[in-house]
Design a protein that fits this description.
The protein has 413 residues and is α/β, with parallel strands linked by helices. The protein folds into two domains: 1-19 and 331-407, Arc Repressor Mutant, subunit A (Orthogonal Bundle), CATH 1.10.10; 20-279, tm_1862 like domain (pyruvate-formate lyase- activating enzyme). It is built from 17 helices and 17 strands. The strands form four sheets. The chain has a nine-stranded mixed sheet. Strands 12-13-14 form a three-stranded antiparallel sheet, with no helix packed on it. The longest helix is centred in the last third of the chain and has 28 residues, at 384-411. It is globular and about 55 Å long.
Amino acid sequence: MLANIVGWVIRREGRKFLKLRQNIDDSVFTDAREIGEISLYIHIPFCRTLCPFCCFNRYLFQEDKARQYFKYLKRELDLYIQKGFTFSDFYFGGGTPTILMDELEGFIDYLKAHFNVKRISLETTPREVSRENIARLKAAGINRLSIGVQSFDDNIVKAMGRPFGPSEDMKRRVMMAQGEFDTVNVDFVFNFPGQTVDQFRADVQAFKELNIDQATFYPLMASPHKKSALERRFNRVDISQERRFYDVILNELYAGGYQAATVWCFSREERMIDEYIIDFDDYIGIGAGSVSIMGGNFYVNTFSLERYGELLSRDTLPIAGWRKLAEKENQRYYLLTKLFGMELDTGKFTQRFGAGMESQLNPELLFLKLLGLVRGKDKIRVTRKGMYPVSVMMREFFTSLNNLRELYIEEQI
């Protein structure tokens, strides 16, 4: 019941992200030099196969389009450089960023030529993991490699439409990468239609037995049309079972000596994570279909490859929608993302917003404390009891973003 209540609140707030203006006010970029180093997300939207549950902007791989895309990506980055932005941490997502290794390497070289590169995190699939690619990624300076396994159960992988099996081969490829980077992460999905709790428990236990650095467990976050398509193809998406899956994570990992970097990410010892929304209050996303939060402004790039290239050919940022968050919305977003990362520093809240958290978000803070979801004063920490409600809150927020993605993909905005 409690998780349902907090989920409903976030779902209601998340609908506001669908109400975007088409033309961004360029004045939002005037304070770029005052922001300092922030995080850059780079979206590579090409895949060799398209997974039925993925809501991100992606296209079937065509080499000529992908090579042209990398050229436009550099042009978009140049426009941000001209506006005075500087970046230190980089995250490549997709899609499949490793789909053209030479273009990826060239883009990383371009980053190094323009910025003080501190950390690079990169996503890939088991199919892309090979001795050659590992060596090339290490040489390029990748610090964290995240491999989208989703499940080690052959039946679940087949149901997901992912041609990356059999499971023993996926495990072999993951272990090929283990120890070669500062952090190797494996992504899993839970509460997929037809997936049983026992199947998921076996995935978690397999992760532990392999002794991999880190795992991130994502609840199914399907947009409305994706959900309908999944239910037509598989079984009903049953959110009421989600808590049982999450309890497996808590019992097997959180109570088993693993550190929770977020309510979804668990590591052996301290490791890098992929959640730039936690480490950085502001971040820029480049590429077709990326989103950004900067100075209380939320904006999204066009999802159309043609429109993306057209705008950049005119030296125009490919922004398709924009919204200035109200101060209270911005504060609540800050609260949500820090709770997702397990801890909120009230001093940093005051520094960012010019007022104490208790004066700005006292009802929200009182609600969370009375229900035992958080504790602490100067540093507010999520309790074990609070981890699942926070997971639901974040799932609802990301589902709202997936609703936006679905709209922009269908309309090719």
